[in-house]
């Protein structure tokens, strides 16, 4: 059996493409693989930043994203996830942030500086206050660089 559905997996040790997927999964549900050339066994998370983490990658990414996006304290995040039944310490959050924040920042910079030399879409928002059916409402418009309406709400 090959590694996944059309997904080409290479050995993390020797780089060989002669990799087979094992029928069992890790305790967290990650697929396991074995290299036919060197015999090394590994999973989807092996050789990654979160290889030895106790929690699923999506939970860790969400914690770090909330920490950076909403400027929550380490202890607040611990309490928020404790209410959802996920227990970890604020030291764990600090470690995850130290590992993932530089990578997230790099990815965001890559997206901000458009790839391939294409010009970025520039737009601005303007707002007005209108009376609609006797009620005052705010209307927001997104307008692109050419003055064309992008969206209203």
Q: Summarize the main sheet.
A: 3 strands, antiparallel
Distance between the termini: 51 Å
Oligomer: single chain
- What is the helix content? 25-40%
Unreliable spans: 1-6
| Structure summary, number of beta strands | 6
What's the overall average pLDDT, rounded?
A: 82
Q: What structural class do helix, strand and pairing data support? A: alpha+beta
Kindly estimate the percentage of residues that lie in beta strands according to DSSP.
25-35%
| Biggest β-sheet: strands ordered side by side in the sheet | 1-2-3
Question: Radius of gyration, rounded?
Answer: 23 Å
Q: Helix count, per DSSP?
A: 3
- SSE string: EEEHHHEEE
Total individual domains: 3
Write down the overall geometry: elongated
Descriptive account of the structure:
It is a single chain. The protein is α+β, with helices and mostly antiparallel strands and 153 residues long. It folds into 3 domains: 1-47, no CATH class; 57-112, no CATH class; 123-152, no CATH class. It has helices at residues 57-70, 74-82, 90-112, and strands spanning 19-25, 31-35, 41-43, 123-132, 135-144, 149-152. The chain has a 3-stranded antiparallel beta sheet with strand order 1-2-3, with no helix packed on it. It has a 3-stranded antiparallel beta sheet with strand order 4-5-6, with no helix packed on it. Strand 1 (19-25) and strand 2 (31-35) form a beta hairpin. Helix 1 crosses helix 3 (90-112) and helix 2 (74-82) packs across helix 3. The chain is elongated and about 75 Å long. The protein starts with 18 loop residues before the first strand and ends with a strand. Residues 122-151 form the DDE domain. InterPro entries: DDE_dom, IS_Transposase.
